[in-house]
Amino acid sequence: CVVFMGFFLGMEKLVACLYQRPNALCRLICFPWAGGGTSQLAQWGKLFSSSIEVSSVRLPGRESRLKEPFAKDMTTVVNEITSVLLKELQEKPFAFFGHSFGSYISFAVALHLKEKYGLEPIHLFVSGAHAPHSEAFLPIKSIPIYDAEDEDILTYIQILGGTPSELLQNEDIKKRLILTFREDLRVLQTFSFEKAERNIPFSCDITCFDGSEDKPHDLEAWHDLTSGDISFYKLPGGHFYLLEPSNEIFLTKHITRCIENAGL
User: Where is each Thioesterase domain found (predicted)?
Assistant: First the structure.
């Protein structure tokens, strides 16, 4: 029972699932953006049918894990997520959705699951992100996080959008957000994926979403990463296009259709 309790507490800590559906055919695991928590994507649960259970991953250093130290690198993040979720992911089909920083985490977790356990999502949904082996990803690795002033990071957060301005009026919240964003970016910079010749890591379908006003991402290169089908959708809006209710409806309907067509 101790093992089960440990497992349960690990789940509670790492994953927010607001609408539990033990009889769902598939689990959709969502991975939030840099500086983000579970509040938006965990709410998606209510937009999906009873056949899909939605959870959102919560990294250390935020929400109920505020007192825990931030993860130091991508390997630590991937290992924690995998060890906590492995049993669940072995039980029934799963799909991943990640936005921006979350896309890279979802990819890294999927890669680890495939290489180590032969497990693969039935569908990978990525949003607002370059293919991880693309040249376009490299500038992210050279943002000087250590030397960046808080003000510079705040400007970057504001350019990206997605953070209500009234939150940034509160000094404590603003400081915490800058710190969390800085630490998440640091994790992202420790991630690298070199695509080996002739090695296609996945066979699942991949769907790439992007905001039409966001700076363009190298989506084409996602083609190299799966032998499955790949599709691209541009939705109206900037980097945080997915927070618009009309886009949210499109995303959840589209994701549902893809999962239900996967022939579970």
Answer: 27-247
